[in-house]
User: Which sequence fits this backbone?
């Protein structure tokens, strides 16, 4: 598989474009990813660290920022006294939706520079790349952290 420097640099520019959109709503990439994951259901910090491929201190620091803004709640688990469950709040859903809207808006602006006949292929390519990135992340998790039903779990 041949990947050009141009493609690698375009990926970096895409990351910067997303970061700028997140800055419009005062979210970090880690905060955005965390809210997006929490939108699928509550979980524990240890699970967040594994699923998002970030360190426990990064999880704590991100939660320490998200919670006072009202985007997440932390509460003792009823199933396990040692565990703290983390859930997204209605305000968290709202800022996530706004962040999604801003990212889509920026992507539309960028794709306005592309021949209209190529836009569908680029969007589909981003979707495929997103799936590949998720699979790569799961493949590189320790086996005990992998979602049930994937790879070796």
Assistant:
């Amino acid at each position: 598989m041949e990947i050009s420097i141009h493609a690698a640099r375009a990926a970096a520019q895409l990351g910067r474009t997303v970061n700028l959109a997140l800055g419009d709503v005062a979210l970090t990439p880690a905060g955005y990813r965390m809210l997006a994951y929490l939108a699928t259901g509550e979980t524990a910090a240890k699970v967040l660290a594994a699923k998002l491929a970030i360190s426990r201190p990064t999880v704590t620091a991100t939660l320490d920022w998200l919670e006072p803004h009202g985007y997440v709640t932390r509460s003792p688990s009823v199933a396990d006294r040692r565990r703290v469950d983390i859930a997204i709040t209605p305000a968290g859903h709202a800022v996530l939706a706004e962040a999604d809207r801003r990212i889509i808006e920026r992507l539309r602006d960028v794709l306005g520079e592309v021949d209209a006949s190529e836009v569908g292929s680029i969007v589909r390519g981003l979707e495929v790349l997103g799936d590949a990135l998720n699979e790569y992340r799961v493949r590189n998790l320790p086996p005990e952290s992998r979602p049930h039903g994937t790879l070796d779990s």
